[in-house]
Amino acid sequence: MNTLTLWFHKFGSPPVFHRIAVRLAPWLFGIAVVSGLAALYGGLVAAPADYQQSDAYRIIFIHVPCAWMSLFAYFFMAANAFIALVWRIKISEILAMASAPVGAIFTAITLATGSIWGKPMWGTWWTWDARLTSELVLLFLYLGVIGLYNAIEDRRQAARAAAFLALVGIVNVPIVHFSVNWWNTLHQGSTVRLLGPSRIDESMLWPLLLMALATHVWFFASVLVRARVSLVELEGGKEWARQIALGKGEPA
Amino acid sequence: MTPTRKRRLMLVGLILLAVGTATALTVLALQQNMTYLYTPSEILAGKVPAGARFRIGGMVKEHSVERGQSLTVGFVVTDGDGDMRVEYEGILPDLFREKQSVIATGEMQDGHFVATEVLAKHDENYVPRDVAEAMQKAHRKHSVPETADQPAQ
Asked: Which structural domains are found in chain A, ordered by start?
C-alpha cells in the first residue's frame, strides 16, 4: 500500500478521524472567524461604493460567498455520497450527512440575501427566473436529503438512501451555475471568473475572495464537528467511544 | 477493487449517466420553450401569442422617458433592432434610467405594451464611482460611444 492509500485508510478509521476532528476544528473555526471579520471590514468599510448601486451592493460580500458555498457543499456532499455508495466507507456516509444541514443554511442565506438585494435594485423580492428557481430547487434537495436521512431508523441504511438522493441531485449544480448563460434571466451573469478577467474592481474583489475563504473554512469546521458527534453516536458501543465517554481521554 | 465494489461502481455510474442524460435533454428542450422574456424585435416579428401576458426585456432608449400625471410614465424599450413603447403606472426601481436594461411584465394594447411591473436588470460589473467617472471622461475624450451598462470593457 502506498502512503496515500494508507493515509486514506487511516483517516477513514473512526478513532483516528475523531482525534483529527477534535484537534482541527477549533483552529478552523478560529481561522474562519478572523478571516471573516477581516473580509467584513474590507467589504463594509474599506471597499469603495459602486458607481451604479452605491452602498447597496455591499450585500454581495455575504450573498456571493454563500452562493458559492451552497454549490460547493452540495458537491462535497455528493462526492462523499458516491464514496459511501460504492465503497461503503462509514466516514463518508457521516461526512455526506453532516454537510447537508450546513449546505442548506448557506443556500437559505443566499436566497434571503438575494431577496433583500433584489427588492431595491430589481424592484422585486422574488421572480421565477432560472437562477432563482434552480437555487430554490437546491434548497429543496438539501431538505429532502435531511428529511430522508431522519425518516429511516437504521442510521446506516438511512445514510445510504439519502446518499442516493444527494448523488442524483448533483445534476442541479451545473444548472444553477450555468442558468444565467443558458436562459434569459433577470439575474446577471457571473462577476468573478476563473477564466478571463473578473468584472469587479480589485478593491472590491479581495474582500469577496477573503470571505469565500472564510466560508469554506467555516464549512469544514462545522462539518467536522457535526461528523464527530454522529460518529460517537454511531460507534457508541465500541471501546474507543466508551473511553472518550468515560473521560479517559483519547485512546492511543 | 473487489467484484462487489466494481459492480456497485458500475451501477452508480450508470444511474448517474442516465440521470445526467435525462437532465441534459430536459435543459435542451427548455432552452427552446422557456422564455423569461421577449425582446422588442421578437414581439414585432409576431413571436408572442396574441392576448398573452409576457415579459419584455431590453434597454430604455435615450431621451424616450416621458413622465405624465402622478406616477404614469412612458418609455421606449429597444434591443437595437426593434423599439417598443411601454406605458406604466407605479413606482420604478432605483436603477431605472435611460440606457438601463429593464424587464417589464404586462400585455400588448393597441400596438404598445402596457406594463403592470417594471424591473431593472443590473449587470455583473462592479466599479468604484471615481473609476467609473474617470473612465467616462476618457471615453468622451476619445469619443467612444458611452454605454451605461458596460463601463468595465
From this structure: 23-190+204-245 (1.20.120)
Give chain A's radius of gyration (CA, Å). Answer: 20
Task: Residue A60: list chain B partners with CB under 8 A.
Answer: 126
Q: Do A130 and B34 touch (CB under 8 A)?
A: yes
**A126, β-bridge pairs:** none
Q: What is the pLDDT of residues A78-117, one digit of tens each?
A: 999 999 999 888 999 999 999 999 999 999 999 999 999 9
Per DSSP, the three-state class of B69 is coil
Which of B8, B30, B101, B124 to mutate: most A Cβ within 10 Å? B124
- Report the phi/psi class of residue B63: left, alpha or beta, with left for phi > 0 and alpha for psi in -120 to 50: left
ipTM: 0.76
Q: Which residues of A touch B (CB under 8 A)?
A: 48-54, 56-57, 60, 82, 85-87, 120-124, 127, 129-130, 167-168, 170-171, 175, 182-186, 188-191, 199-201, 203-204
For the beta carbon of residue B3, count every other beta carbon within 10 angstroms. Answer: 7
- Please, what is the end-to-end C-alpha distance for chain B in angstroms? 53
Percentages helix, strand, coil for chain B (3-state, rounded to 5) are 30, 30, 40
- The cell for B27 is 435543459
A168 in helix, strand or coil? helix
pTM above 0.80, yes or no: yes
Q: What percent of chain A has pLDDT over 90?
A: 63
Q: Which helix (H) or strand (E) holds B73?
A: strand B72-78
Find chain A residues with C-beta within 8 A of B121's C-beta: 122, 186, 188
Continuous H helices in chain B: 3-33, 40-44, 129-141
